[in-house]
Design a protein that fits this description.
Layout (H helix, E strand, L loop, with lengths): L5 E2 L4 E2 L4 E2 L4 E2 L4 E2 L4 E2 L4 E2 L4 E2 L4 E2 L4 E2 L4 E2 L3 E3 L4 E2 L4 E2 L25 E3 L4 E2 L4 E2 L4 E2 L4 E2 L4 E2 L7 E4 L4 E5 L8 E2 L4 E3 L6 E3 L6
Parallel strand pairs: 1-4, 2-5, 3-6, 4-7, 5-8, 6-9, 7-10, 8-11, 9-12, 10-13, 11-14, 12-15, 13-16, 14-17, 15-18, 16-19, 17-20, 19-21
Antiparallel strand pairs: 21-22, 23-24, 24-25
Length: 195
C-alpha cells in the first residue's frame, strides 16, 4: 500500500493497476491488472473492477458493484450498490462445437458512463451503451440503449421518462427543450441530441 491512497487489508489490488491520490478501496474489493482509477475515488466493499477498466476522478463505486473489462467511467460518476456493467453481447460458456470458450473466442464490448452520471442500485448496463453527462439510471433498471445527457431512464427495459438537473432533481422541460430546475434554479438544454 502506498501512502497517497488507501487499500483495506482484505482488498486485492493488482500491482499493475494505477490508483490515484486519495482513492480509498474497501473490504474485499478487487482491482485487476491494467485498471486505472483517478484521484479521490471510493471503491466499496466487495466491488469488482476488472482488467483495463478506466475510472476517472471523484467516482463513487458502492458495495458489490461489478465493472467488467471494456467499461469507462468519466469523472464524478456514481455507481450504486450491486450495479453490473456487462461486456459481452453474446455470452456463452462454450463454442458451437462444445469446446470451452477462451479469451480469443469473444469480443469485448465497450460501455461508457459520462461525467457526473449516476447509476442506481442493482441496475444493469448492457455493453455497447453510453450513459450521457449527468444522466440518471433508476434502481433496478436494465439499460439496453444509450441515454442522453441529463436523461432519466427507468424500468426493464429502461425507458427515457424525463430529464434531471446536475443537482439530481427532475427538470420541467418547456416546448423549446429547456429544462428548468425548481431545486437549484438551473436552466439546462435537454433532448436526445444532448450528449
Amino acid at each position: 500500500m502506498m501512502s497517497d491512497f488507501f487499500v483495506h487489508p482484505t482488498a486485492e489490488v493488482s500491482a499493475e493497476a494505477k490508483i490515484g491520490q486519495g482513492t480509498r478501496i474497501w473490504n474485499r474489493a478487487q482491482v485487476r491488472e491494467g485498471a486505472v482509477l483517478g484521484d479521490g475515488c471510493i471503491v466499496g466493499k466487495d466491488a469488482y473492477v476488472d482488467m483495463d477498466v478506466r475510472i476517472g476522478s471523484h467516482v463513487k463505486i458502492q458495495n458489490s458493484a461489478l465493472l467488467y473489462h471494456g467499461a469507462t467511467l468519466e469523472d464524478g460518476v456514481f455507481i450504486g450498490p450491486q450495479v453490473c456493467l456487462t461486456n459481452d453481447l453474446y455470452p456463452r460458456a462454450i463454442n458451437p462445437d462444445g469446446s470451452l470458450k477462451g479469451a480469443s473466442d469473444w469480443e469485448v464490448g465497450e460501455t461508457v458512463i459520462r461525467y457526473g452520471a449516476s447509476v442506481g442500485a442493482g441496475a444493469i448496463i448492457v455493453t455497447g451503451v453510453e450513459v450521457g453527462r449527468f444522466a440518471m439510471i433508476g434502481a433496478g433498471a436494465v439499460v439496453t440503449h444509450d441515454v442522453p445527457a441529463h436523461g432519466l431512464a427507468l424500468g426493464v427495459p429502461a425507458r427515457l421518462v424525463g430529464y434531471v438537473c446536475a443537482c439530481g432533481a427532475r427538470l420541467d422541460v418547456d416546448a423549446q427543450g429547456c429544462g428548468h430546475c425548481a431545486r437549484c434554479g438551473s436552466i439546462v438544454e435537454v433532448g436526445e441530441d444532448s450528449k
